[in-house]
Structures are given as C-alpha cells and as structure tokens.
Amino acid sequence: MTVSFNGKKPSRRAVLKGALAAGGAVAGATMARAASPDPLITETQPWAQGLGEGVDATPYGLPIRFESDVVRRNVEWLTADTISSINFTPIHALDGTITPQGCGFERHHSGAIELRKEDYRLMINGLVDTPLVFTYADLERFPRVNKVHFCECAANTGMEWAGAQLNGAQFTHGMIHNMEYSGVPLGTLLREAGVKPEGKWVYVEGADASSNGRSIPLEKAMDDVLVAFKANGEALRKEHGYPVRLVVPGWEGNMWVKWLRRIEITDAAVESREETSKYTDTLADGTSRKWTWVMDAKSVVTSPSPQSPITHGHGPLVITGLAWSGHGKIARVDVTVDGGKTWKQARLAADPQDKAVTRFYLDHVWQGEEMLLQSRAMDETGYVQPTKDALREVRGENSIYHNNCIQTWWVKSDGEAENVEIS
Questions:
Q1: Integer Cα distance of 236 and 274 in angstroms
Q2: What is the mean pLDDT for each group of 10 consecutive residues in the chain (423 residues)?
Q3: Are 335 and 344 in contact (CB under 8 A)?
Q4: Diameter of the chain by CA atoms?
Q5: What is the enclosing helix (H) or strand (E) of 219?
C-alpha cells in the first residue's frame, strides 16, 4: 500500500485511516466491530460491581497475574545444573530501557548466596598505603552517585555463532539488563587506601564459593567503576549480588563481581581461571584473544520477534528494539524489513546515555508481506554493528563470547516470526 501525504509528515491517525481504507479483512472487521455495541463498554463489568483490594494487600508490590508470562527463563540443556548456569531477561516483553530487578538475568558460578548486611565486609589490600576493611554501614557514609548502565554477559548470543539456534529474543539476546545503580565510585575507596606507585591492576573477588575473581586495569578502576549497593532505587536482589556488587560500565558481565568481598592492588594481572581458560575468545586457528573486556555495539529487534509475533492484523506496526555499546553512547540505529536491501533510520526514544541501553522505534505499515527484519547499531565512535559473516571472517564459528552480529527475524505472512540466518 502507498499512501500520499503531499510531502508532509503523516500523522498516526492518517496512517491508520489509510491502512483501513486500503482494505484487508482484519482491518475491515475491526472497523465493523467498532460500529456495533461493545458489551465491555455498554454493560457493567465485574471489576466495577464491587470493591477492590485495599492498601497493604501486597506490602511489596508484585506484577498483576495477567502478566505472569513476563519472567526469566533458562534453557535446560545449556548447563548440567542450575547452580552454575544462566537465565534470560524477557526483553521481548519489556519496553523502555530500565530492566526491573525481578526480570534481570542471572548468572551464577556456584549459586546465589544469602549474605546479611551486618555480616558484610569489603577488604582492600595489596599495594596500598593502608589496608582497609569496610562494613556495609561504612560504605553508606561515602559520597555516592547514581549511574544507568547495561550489564551484558560475554556469552550473550554465543549460541548463534554456528547458525540460528534459539528461537526468541529472550534466548538469543537476553543475557543483558539495564539498571540504575547507586553506590560509591571505586576510585574513592582506592584513594582512601592509597595506591602505591607500582600498583597497576586491581583484582576483585566475590564472597561466594566459586571465588569468582577478575583483574581490572587500574585506569578503568579509577575511571567509572562503581561499588554498588542499590539498583533501580532499592537494595540489590540476592541473585544480583546483595548486599554489594561491582559495576564495570561497558565491560563484560563476568567482571561485575557479585557479593564483592576483596579488592587487591597488584603490579600485574592475576591470570585467574575466569580470564584464562574462560572468558577468552577462541579464533579459527585455535589461538585465543585475551583482555576482550569491552562489549561492542549491538542491537536487536525485540518486537516483532518469535516470542512477540504480530497479532493485530494488517496496518500500523511498531517495530521496536534495544541498542547498546560498551564504547559509549548509541548514535544511530537503522532497521531493515527486507534483509538489508534497504534501511531506514529508527527513532531513538530518548537521548542515549553512556554505556547504557537505548530504545528505538520504527513506525511501519504492514500488509501481511513477509519480512526479514534486522537492526544495525552505530555508536558515537563510528563503530557499526557487523554481520555474522563479517565476524566469522575474523573469529570463525567455534567462538563463544562477544558475538555482536546483526540478528535476523523472518516474519511470516501470519505474523509469526522465526530466527534465521541470511548474512
């Protein structure tokens, strides 16, 4: 369908009117129903015939039961046990950019532990002038900041290296969440301890049984790393590291150590398990890249997608998704409905924030044609999200981490969508 607006930008009402006038059984039926009495309007409904729940019916507010499908999910065959495993954020069912804590993905190496604030201790040792131990109450007394950042597992989209595997944005791209963190800059605490001149690295370690630990260059630690104790305005959830976790903006999620217990200043990287045998990128020739901390620019269309098909019939369609970059702000997102033959610039919902998720929208008129739907992000450095073929030329098919390829959804004439690979 082609609708002419004499060079003027069409309004949503004009697009809708054009779509209805153009025909299509669904659009026509919808308009006919609207002309008939609707009992949901003309008759008093049960929810208006009595009293609802009073305040304090749920002292901590919970989602209404009609949204019970918006939950994290795991893939049972990915790991042998859920104790050392991952589940996925339902990004296909969310809008905006802030991820509710209850929906934010989990990644555990030895299970989520319970640690009381009163029992919490954070030690700073190594190449410092004064070794220090902080309680939770001590941390609360330091000047704090609020920062919105994404946390993305390095293995996000990792199953897709060898081809289209998992049928849903939640499963292909759901190892990410975007929250507002409150806490103390790590640099503030390091300056309190006094870093010796020979100190070049920071080794951070968690309190759980896995003792997950990572080395971070001192420059990054002093720049924007945060020792966080709140997320989205409330205490961290247990599965997100309560009572204190590390926030390492733009860098892979494994470095965001949960239940943070120790910070050691060293003169060299510790070369822990999580930065040698794990979280390195294997290339086609068998060698591995180290220190691939930054999460490159990436995007995905969240709707329509396999878990969020088109159900409203022909006419106006809102295509939406998420974009992010560990190098800074998202500058632009393009969307294609024909597999990359033509691209349209999407609208960014708000001014992009540094190392945070950006929501994009593209208003489209869909008349039942099949679509090969993709999004392509560009960040403020000029980096453009690559195709999977371009990544494979460098990395091969046997990698696990840092797959930021362009994702393709095949949207069929009935509105259902499927994960496919075309480039």
A1: 23
A2: 38 46 42 74 94 95 96 94 96 98 96 97 98 98 98 96 93 98 98 98 96 95 98 98 98 98 97 89 84 97 98 97 98 98 98 98 98 98 96 88 97 98 91
A3: yes
A4: 79
A5: helix 218-223
